[in-house]
Amino acid sequence: MINIPKGCKDMLPADGATWRTVEETAREVAEEYNFKEIRTPTFEHTELFARGVGDTTDVVTKEMYTFLDKGGRSITLRPEGTAGVARAFIENGLQGGVMPFKVFYLISAFRYERPQAGRLREFHQFGAELYGSDSPAADAEAILFANRFLEKLQIGDSVELRINSIGCKHCRAKYADALREYFRPHIGEMCEDCRARFEKNPLRMLDCKNEGCKRYTAHAPSMLDYLCDDCRTHFEKLKSLLTAAEVSFTVDPRIVRGLDYYTRTVFEFTTDLIGAQSTVLGGGRYDALIEQLGGRSTPAVGFAAGIERLILAMDAKEVPIIERLPDVYVAGMDEASRTRAMIVAEQLRRRGYIVECDLMDRSVKAQFKYADKLYASKVIVIGENELKEGAVEIKDMSKSLSRRVKFDEIAQYFPKR
Q1: Over the stretch 32-77, which tens digit does the pLDDT of each residue have?
Q2: Is 193 helix (H, G, I), strand (E, B) or coil?
Q3: From CA 290, how far away is CA 297, in angstroms rounded?
Q4: Residue 56, CA distances (Å) to 124, 242, 259, 416 in order
Q5: Which of 49, 183, 195, 209 has the greatest number of C-beta atoms within 10 Å?
Q6: How many CB atoms lie within 10 A of CB 229?
Q7: In this predicted structure, what is the pLDDT of residue 277?
Q8: Of 143, 311, 159, 323, whose CA–CA distance to 242 is shortest?
């Protein structure tokens, strides 16, 4: 017996309707906001993530699946979606197009971490990216897009939007100095990761999950007190736009997000449905990323949501999932009628119906039982007499009614969908 790798999970047919609901909802909302789909490779050169995500992040230092290919090149399975989209934006010359450039993606991603509920080593994301605008209105649109998506999944009233600004590189440098001054007396009592980040990127210390470190990070200075005038104005405008759109939010100065490319706005949608303050969707602005990866300076904002976490939240809230059931079961009584049943089934499928017919050589009685288990709305019966008469018996399973219909009139009985 070969088992599934640790941290991976099969999506079984019983789960398919829920996954399809999430993915179709993502596409529907993306279309409402005029975001187009983009697809990038599952693996990229390791340098893309080291430079883009940040070499002090847990993702890069601990969690990436990295290997040498047969040419000796360092390759990494993507741990997130934004860096790959940014690379595609630069490499395909999309900077020269009409702005804003708006795309979404549905991807699988990979991180080596301890598996737990809603956190797998292979996981799936829905994400959206908007390039070309540094306006707070772009931040607002990304948040409104995310909010609308969660509402359509029927978990919008069970999530809380939390926002923050982590400033630009200028005001963040002053904030980093303030953090070093604050943490310096305690650094010997903090974890190894925090000690490593102290000089290089003290903001990462605020994202530490170590309980001993949280005693100190909880009382650290707030970035909001160090924002420059431009960043403060940007954040205030964003808040006013969200208020005007009647989207409630909480300002949380402890949100820094786990990736280094973020600037200014960061936000998270959290819920108690799957554990205390679990994040189901997060994002923010990353104005320096494109230039950092070798492109022309281009402002950007976006978000990503973990599909497994969304499904856990939907399950916890018992969101009803509608799954299309078979419309018709075509039953054949003997070899000749089974052949005709297959032809009728194919005709109806081409007219847009979900149709089943016998593949197991069941008796007619067993076929009716099977059709009942499938919750088929109608059963078409074809036997020796039906073949002679050139007609079928159509039974409405919910009304216990039946009707005789000629073979050449079946299409009229089942109008094209």
Answers
A1: 999 999 999 999 999 999 988 877 677 888 899 999 999 999 999 9
A2: helix
A3: 6
A4: 24, 32, 9, 58
A5: 49
A6: 8
A7: 59
A8: 143
Spans of the chain below 70 pLDDT: 56, 258-259, 276-277
Cα(256)–Cα(264) distance, integer angstroms: 10
Domain ranges of the chain: 13-168+228-316, 328-413
Question: Please, what's the b/e burial string for 17-55 (b: 16 or more CB within 10 A of its CB; e: otherwise)?
Answer: ebbebbeebbeebbeebebeebebeebbebebbbbbbbe
The predicted pLDDT at position 258 comes to: 62
Is 164:256 a contact under the CB 8 Å cutoff?
A: yes
User: Residue for token digits 């990295």?
Assistant: 66
How many CB atoms neighbour CB 365 within 10 A? 9
Residue in the structure block whose two tokens are 């049943």: 341
CATH number of 13-168+228-316: 3.30.930.10
- Cα separation, 360 vs 332, in Å, equals 11
How would you classify the pairing of strands 250-251 and 355-357?
A: unpaired
Backbone angles phi, psi at 89, to 5 degrees: -60, -45
Radius of gyration over alpha carbons of the chain, in Å? 28
Cβ–Cβ < 8 Å for 260, 275 = no
Q: What SS3 class is residue 279?
A: strand
* CA nearest to 121, candidates 81, 63, 44: 63
Tokens of 197: 């980040």
Residue type, 334: D
Helices and strands counted in the chain (H then E): 15, 16
List pLDDT tens digits, range 50-60.
988 877 677 88
Measured CA to CA, the distance from residue 173 to residue 238 in angstroms comes to 23
pLDDT of amino acid 206: 84
The CATH class given to the 328-413 domain equals alpha beta
